[in-house]
Design a protein that fits this description.
InterPro entries: DUF8082. With about 140 residues, the protein is mainly α. The protein has helices at about 25-30, 40-45, 50-70, 75-90, 95-105, 110-120, 125-135. Helix 4 crosses helix 5, helix 4 crosses helix 7 and helix 5 (about 95-105) crosses helix 6. It starts with about 25 loop residues before the first helix and ends with a helix.
């Protein structure tokens, strides 16, 4: 979405819901986006510039994509990515942790539940490293 002149009308990205968690800076802009207000008006109401409106909408789209991804069932491919990220943090124990967690969660586990269950077993530094790896691979 390009809004160089501020004349465009921003809309909520597909998949974005009221309950999608957003950083405050993004939420305060998206709060004013209603599909009818021009970007320049959204910018005025949110006290930002029109390019910042475009960036907030782009960030919201990324957040919505991640939220949607987390609700998907765990696939072999996503389990491999999670295992690779965790192994980078814990070494070979990462493989066992993911396998045990998937066994505990059973059939129909979502990516979000897997990530939460794995993260709950890590210390803060390990969680940060794990999340960095996931982000590099487009998961977190």
């Amino acid at each position: 979405m390009t809004l160089d002149t501020g004349a465009g009308v921003p809309v909520w990205p597909p998949g974005l819901r009221d309950e999608t968690p957003l950083p405050f800076a993004v939420w305060r802009v998206l709060h004013h986006v209603n599909g009818g207000r021009p970007a320049i008006e959204v910018a005025r109401l949110a006290r930002v510039t029109a390019p910042e409106v475009a960036e907030a909408v782009a960030q919201a789209a990324r957040w919505a994509g991640r939220a949607s991804q987390r609700g998907q069932p765990v696939t072999e491919a996503s389990a491999r990515v999670v295992t690779a990220c965790l192994t980078a943090v814990l070494g070979p124990m990462g493989t066992f942790l993911v396998e045990d967690t998937l066994d505990d969660l059973g059939e129909g586990a979502t990516l979000g539940t897997l990530l939460s269950a794995v993260a709950a077993q890590l210390n803060e530094a390990q969680v940060q490293a794990f999340v960095r790896g996931l982000r590099e691979r487009g998961i977190a």
